[in-house]
Each structure stands twice: as C-alpha cells, then as structure tokens.
Specification:
Bound molecules: flavin-adenine dinucleotide, NADP nicotinamide-adenine-dinucleotide phosphate
GO biological process, one term: removal of superoxide radicals
Keywords: Disulfide bond, FAD, Flavoprotein, NADP, Oxidoreductase, Redox-active center
Cofactor: FAD
Strand content: 25-35%
Order of helices and strands: EHEEEHEEEEEHEHEHEHEEEEEEEEEHH
Pfam families: Pyr_redox_2 (PF07992)
CATH class of the largest domain: Alpha Beta
Mean pLDDT: 95
GO molecular function: thioredoxin-disulfide reductase (NADPH) activity
Radius of gyration: 22 Å
Distance between the termini: 36 Å
Shape: elongated
Length: 327
C-alpha cells in the first residue's frame, strides 16, 4: 500500500480502546489509520491471565491483544508501527508527526493513548530502575527465581503482580500504605491464602537499598506510617505497582484536561473540547479503567467520529439511525 499522508480518521493508540475504534471505523468505511505507539496492544500486554473479558473465561492478555489487532486488520484498518511525537490540534486537518518522520493529516482524530505506570519518585527508585526496580512483573519476574521480592501498592495490579511473582520468587512481600486493599476480593483471597506471601500494612517504601558494583537491589527501607519508624527488609527486587497516570502529554495545553491529566469528554460521549477530536479508554477515565470499558469507549468514539465526519461533509454515508437520534 502507498503510504498515506492524509486520512479521514486517525486513531492514536493500540489498546482495547484503539483497536475497538478501528474495528468500528473500518466497518463504517472510514479507512482509519491506527498508530500503535511504544506498547503495541497496550497495558494488557504486560499481564498474564485476563478473567473478565466476556466470552473468555481466561485468556492471556497478550493473546487477547493479538486477536484484537488481527480483528482490526481484517476489517480493513491500517495499523502502523510508529509513535506520535507531536499532534497539532490547532487547525483542521489535524497534523500528527511521528518518530519515524512520517507526517499524517487527519479530518478527525481518536485519542486512545491510555495510561502509563506511575512511580514513587524516590532517588533510589530511579537509580535502580532496570537493576532490581521494575513496574512490570510479567516482564521481569523471571529474573527472581528463588529470590525475595517486594511489591508496593494495594490495587488489582499490585495483587496480581504479587501472585504472579510467587511463581518464581521464594518470598513475596506486599507493602501497602493503608490497612486494607482496594483490589477485588477474589484477588485478595488468593493473595492472603498464598504461603509465599507476607503483607505489611500501613507502610511505605522510604528508599530502595542496593549495591553499585555490580548494580543491584539488596533491600527496602520501609516507613511505618503510624509511628514513622523505619526498618530494612531484605529484597532482591522491588516492583512498584501504584497505579497508572493518563498519557495525555501529547495534548496537554491543547485539550481540556481534568482529574490530574485525564482528557475531559462531554458526559455520555467521547467528544473533547475540540470538535473532531475524540478520546476513549483510560486516557479519559479515572474511575473504571478496565479493558471492557475502554473497548466500549472506543466503539463510542468511532461512532462519534463517523457522525462528525458526515456532518462536516467529509463522508457520504449516513450515520447510523441510533447515533443520529442522539444528536
Ligand atoms: P492502553 O491499554 O493503556 O493502551 C494505550 C495505547 O496507546 C498503547 O498501545 C500505547 O502504545 C499507545 N500510545 C501511547 N502514547 C502514544 C503515542 N504518543 N503515539 C502512539 N501511540 C501511543 N483490565 C481488565 O479489564 N482486566 C484485567 O485483567 C486487567 N489487568 C490488568 C493488568 C495490568 C498489569 C494492568 C497494568 C492493567 C490491567 N487492566 C485490566 C486494565 C486495562 O489494561 C486497561 O484498562 C486498558 O488496557 C486500557 O485500554 P486503553 O486502550 O485505554 O489504553
Ligand atoms: P489503582 O487501582 O489506582 O491502585 C493503586 C494502588 O497503589 C492503591 O492501592 C494505592 O493506595 C496505591 N498507591 C497509589 N499511590 C501510592 C503512593 N504514592 N505510595 C504508595 N502507594 C500508593 O491502580 P492499579 O492497581 O494499577 O489498577 C488500575 C486500574 O486497572 C484499576 O481500575 C483496576 O481495576 C484495573 N485493573 C484491573 C485488573 C483486573 O480486572 N483483574 C487488574 C489490574 C488492573 P490506596 O489504596 O491507599 O489509594
């Protein structure tokens, strides 16, 4: 295929939101181009079992995302392996500049850039990143066979990471800043029942300790938040799992953001503060942040974009009666 420099619809991001938008947009004959970014398949590619995708009692996250990509391709979406480094939403057509040098203009854009792991911001965390400090157990867990690891956080990700690490590590210590977890009960029950797991409550990571020759983690300094006391526990690896922040840097200063950087959309739609720019998935959602809700918003964004392009006279096909009735 000749490289296109202009498209009717550009989708930025290849998680559940992006691929679902691509499936719907391709079926609406919008000939969408989807740019995958640094993490083709999105966050589910760094997990193992997904047990809450309807129709699949259990499926590996990476496998689910490969299926979504294949589905979008089969429907006719153009999938591009590249990273959008700049997005000019100042005038239509909008302009995306990519890492490879590719420049694409688009009549409408769907932003589905999701979220990225948050870090604690400790100097020692930065120092040992890649040398014992990680935010991805599925990526790095294998290196901790018969070793002791610490996981920081109390949400679904932290508990899933801790359970995953029990496959390799001799001991997994989950450190949480409160006295109860926010993870789903089914995950909590699995965690508490696991013989390799210890939970340390009401504590935070004060610093990671380690050696520089060779670089490596040897322990974790934990601060008890009730009395401020600090103690060191042995650790060969520290996994930070304290949630994700929306990947909205591309559009900061151009689109209205809220709740700490999430792209603001009109309630009940995916319309952003700029007509023709739509947003879906974790990028817009500080509450649900699930694969299925992201996919649902991806569908909505494609339908919203289709309606927008029809109203602008960019496409000839009429919008679906159901969607038309909303406007
Ligand atoms: P993401 O999946 O975050 O994808 C964002 C996409 O945007 C990526 O492809 C990235 O490469 C791309 N991108 C970012 N910036 C750019 C750019 N500048 N240019 C081009 N592309 C860009 N949810 C569940 O429902 N069930 C689970 O079991 C589950 N397990 C999880 C386990 C872990 C470890 C994690 C971290 C999350 C889990 N979630 C789970 C949450 C789920 O993964 C997210 O809600 C979902 O992936 C969000 O989808 P998304 O499409 O909005 O964005
Ligand atoms: P999350 O739900 O936001 O949880 C983040 C955890 O980290 C919380 O327990 C929080 O503590 C803790 N934390 C935050 N900042 C901290 C800090 N500075 N120091 C110490 N602890 C800190 O994030 P998540 O677990 O990554 O999940 C993100 C979304 O993906 C959620 O919607 C989740 O449901 C979804 N997800 C789903 C699944 C699944 O369905 N199986 C799996 C993974 C993720 P507090 O509790 O005190 O706030």
């Amino acid at each position: 295929m000749t490289e296109r420099s202009h498209v009717k619809l550009l989708i930025v991001g290849s998680g559940p939101a992006g691929y679902t938008a691509a499936v719907y947009a391709a079926r609406a004959m919008l000939e969408p181009m989807l740019i995958q970014g640094m993490q083709p398949g999105g966050q589910l590619t760094i997990t193992t079992e997904v047990e809450n995708w309807p129709g699949e009692t259990e499926i590996q996250g990476p496998e689910l995302m490969v299926k979504m990509e294949a589905h979008a391709k089969a429907m006719g979406a153009e999938i591009v392996t590249d990273l959008v480094t700049a997005l000019d939403l100042g005038k239509r057509p909008f302009t995306a500049t990519c890492d490879s040098g590719r420049v694409v203009t688009a009549d409408a854009v769907i932003l589905a850039t999701g979220a990225q792991a948050r870090w604690l911001g400790l100097p020692s965390e930065e120092q040992f990143k890649g040398f014992g400090v990680s935010a991805c157990a599925t990526c790095d867990g294998f290196f901790y066979r018969n070793r002791e690891v610490v996981v920081i956080g109390g949400g679904n990700t932290a508990v899933e990471e801790a359970l995953f690490l029990t496959r390799f590590a001799s001991k997994v210590t989950l450190v949480h800043r409160r006295d109860s977890l926010r993870a789903e009960k089914i995950l909590q029950n699995r965690l508490f029942a696991h013989p390799k797991v210890e939970v340390i409550w009401n504590s935070e990571l004060a610093e990671v300790t380690g050696a520089t020759t060779p670089m490596g983690v040897t322990g974790a300094l934990l601060r008890d938040l009730r009395d401020g006391s600090v103690r060191e526990i042995k650790a060969d690896g520290v996994f930070v799992a304290i949630g994700h922040a929306p990947a909205s840097e591309l559009v900061a200063g151009q689109l209205e953001l809220h709740n700490g950087g999430y792209v603001k959309v009109e309630p009940g739609s995916t319309r952003t503060s700029i007509p023709g720019v739509f947003a879906a998935g974790d990028l817009t959602d500080h509450i649900y942040r699930q694969a299925i809700t992201s996919a649902g918003m991806g569908c909505m964004a494609a339908l919203d974009a289709e309606h927008f392009l029809a109203a602008e006279g960019e496409i000839e096909i009429a919008p679906e009666p159901l969607v038309a009735a909303i406007y």
